[in-house]
Amino acid sequence: MDTQLNSITAGVFEEQEGHLTQSEPGPKVDRVVELAEKLDGLAEEASGETVDHIRTARNHCLEYVEEGGGDEQPRTE
């Protein structure tokens, strides 16, 4: 679980750094979707109140994408 959490944290920091260095900042949709998927996996391994917090974060990511956030279309695999 620590590895997944570290990966998620690194992804968030990458997006924050991109926000500061890109001429047109904003999270990429595919990165937000990837983050939501990682949070979903993390929630499956967590317990108690932590699960609620992780799912809330995941839901915020998905709402952002649904509302048209980001600057590109999500990747389809």
UniProtKB/TrEMBL annotation:
It comes from the Archaea. InterPro entries: DUF7553. Residues 1-27 are annotated as: Disordered. This is Uncharacterized protein. It comes from Haloterrigena salifodinae. The lineage of its organism: Archaea, Methanobacteriati, Methanobacteriota, Stenosarchaea group, Halobacteria.
